[in-house]
Amino acid sequence: MLNRNTIARFYVIARGWLSALTKGIHRSNLSCGRTLERLPRRNFVSPRNDENALLHGAKHLPRHNNGKFNSQFPITNFRFPFTFSLSNSLAFTLAEVLITLGIIGVVAGLMIPGVIAESQKAGYVAGARKAYSLWNQALIQMAADGGCIGDLSCFFDSADLKTMGDKIVKYFNVAKNCDTTTSGCFPNTVANNFDGSDIHSGYDGTNNYYRFITADGMAIEINVPYLGCSGSGGSLTKICMYWVYIDVNGLKKPNAFGRDIFRFAIVNDNGPALYPYGGAKYAPWKINSGCNYGYNNGTDKQGKYCAGRIIDEGWQMNY
After folding, report:
1. In the chain, where are the structural domains located?
2. Could you tell me the mean pLDDT of each successive run of 10 residues in the chain, 319 residues long?
3. Dihedral angle over CA of 305, 311, 317, 319, nearest 10
4. Under a CB-based contact definition with an 8 Å cutoff, are residues 54 and 60 in contact?
5. Which of helix, strand or coil describes residue 262?
6. Distance CA 282, CA 308 (A)
7. pTM of full prediction above 0.85
8. Phi-psi region of 297 (alpha: psi -120 to 50; beta: other; left: phi over 0)
């Protein structure tokens, strides 16, 4: 039967084993950031055969006359020979955390606007590239349907804008067609410069333009058709439609040439094609820096000639 004396003996033996196992340990790193601290030697009990071993530096235990431990021994006052401490744990102080968060905030504030701008540019270029591909496919089909495969001159059998617009719009999946009679299919106020400056209005006016919005959200505006593709400009001699404005994100901002709006022409010089303003054959952008063709008082931010630059540079908006 277990009594206080038996328990005290077991405790002395257990303390001896723990003392042997932990001998020489001062501080050892444990998982979860804890440290094991060895208590002073006086708090350990060395393994002895003597039942009167010191417990936690206390006086010798009193004995009865029969040599047994005092039954009133205060076992409840025993302490473990080691303790867990968080005082030396591997962790960051509050000041270190706040400083780190502050640095991250400053760096993010500097980098995020640039990342957003580059992401927007990539979106505009992707839209321009998609529109360019769709238009060239449609123009090839127009030539075939007009009776002259590989030649748009048969398809452009009128110089009337509405007549030609009604023919062209059939080759696109259209969500809204304003033709030349209603507004709401193209931004009315547009920046001629890609930085958003040189604002002009009237782009959504009736009669002057044929306008429609495709199902994927692109706003299209065309003007000045040439009968039999008889127009000319620069080194191009077979222009079919002088203006094709494409806003790749519809009515959404920034509504600026060279950003989300690009200018093309429909040509027939080497077969049906959508030709970019700023290309080598018409107002080449390389004459000046930026996308300028000596327009707008010599500014180098003229956006109407940026389509040529984007295509020349491998569909990149490097400005």
Report:
1. 4-85, 127-312
2. 53 50 42 42 44 43 47 47 52 85 87 87 97 97 94 96 96 96 94 92 86 97 96 94 96 96 96 93 73 63 91 92
3. -40
4. yes
5. strand
6. 9
7. no
8. left
